[in-house]
Automatic annotation (TrEMBL):
InterPro entries: Chaperonin_GroES (IPR020818), Chaperonin_GroES_sf (IPR037124), GroES-like_sf (IPR011032). SUPFAM superfamilies: GroES-like. This is 20 kDa chaperonin, chloroplastic. Belongs to the GroES chaperonin family. Keywords: Chaperone. GO terms for molecular function: ATP binding; metal ion binding; protein folding chaperone; protein-folding chaperone binding; unfolded protein binding. One of its GO terms (cellular component) is mitochondrion. It comes from the Eukaryota. It holds the Pfam family Cpn10.
Length: 219
């Protein structure tokens, strides 16, 4: 997916407190994201202190690089997002920049966990990139041999590693740049590696973003 950057010769741009003649143009597979502001209160109306606010890892794609070349074939592998789409990325990913008076970040397309259109992510508008899949994890209580119920957070490992696939990406790019078909489809139940993936919450439900190589079996 090639992003065409339109440059206005009469415009000026603000980058890190200085005026520059041209807009930021990401290179290779980097993506420029305008970071969403962190909310001042919870959905229940509780005011958050500065210390309690969680760093925002959601934003809008502003511009994309042309992609990266495959190290063996030289084929161009384009990025999997487009300007205007919303993305969620890892908490420690990217390099923050002050651009046009607001916080932005430069991330690699591999750092994108999920993408979506609209202001709020839902199970209906969520999309995946490359060989990633979104799994609704099972968090049911388990019973010990003595009949004692164990809450998911008290179980060994504390993170579920089975669940239902609700969205899949097109697949990992091959040497010719074309995606390799995924071995799982929406609706499959999967078992993946313990502690694999990144946790994402949509509404009140918990999900994990898993790569195909981290998936061990389906049923």
């Amino acid at each position: 997916m090639l992003s065409i950057l339109v440059i206005d010769p009469l415009a000026s741009y603000q980058l890190e407190g200085r005026t520059v003649a041209n807009p930021i143009e990401p290179l290779t597979n980097f993506v420029l994201v305008r970071v969403d502001e962190t909310p001042d209160e919870t959905d229940g109306g509780i005011i958050l202190t500065k210390k309690a606010k969680k760093k925002s890892t959601t934003g809008t794609v502003v511009a994309c690089g042309p992609g990266k070349t495959h190290p063996d074939s030289g084929h161009l592998i384009s990025v999997g997002v487009l300007p205007g789409e919303k993305v969620i990325y890892g908490e420690f990913d990217g390099t923050e920049v002050d651009y046009q008076g607001s916080k932005h970040t430069l991330i690699r397309d591999d750092d994108v966990l999920v993408k979506f259109n609209g202001e709020k992510i839902t199970k209906e508008n969520v999309g995946m990139t490359a060989d990633k899949m979104l799994v609704r994890v099972e968090t049911k209580e388990q019973e010990t041999t003595g009949g004692l119920l164990i809450a998911p957070t008290s179980q060994k490992g504390s993170r579920p590693s089975v669940g239902e696939v609700v969205a899949v990406g097109p697949g990992r790019p091959a040497m010719n740049g074309e995606p390799i078909e995924m071995d799982v489809v929406k609706g499959d139940m999967v078992k993946f590696r313990d502690f694999a993936g990144n946790e994402v919450q949509i509404g009140e439900e918990d999900f994990s973003v898993i790569r195909m190589q981290e998936c061990l079996a389906k049923y």
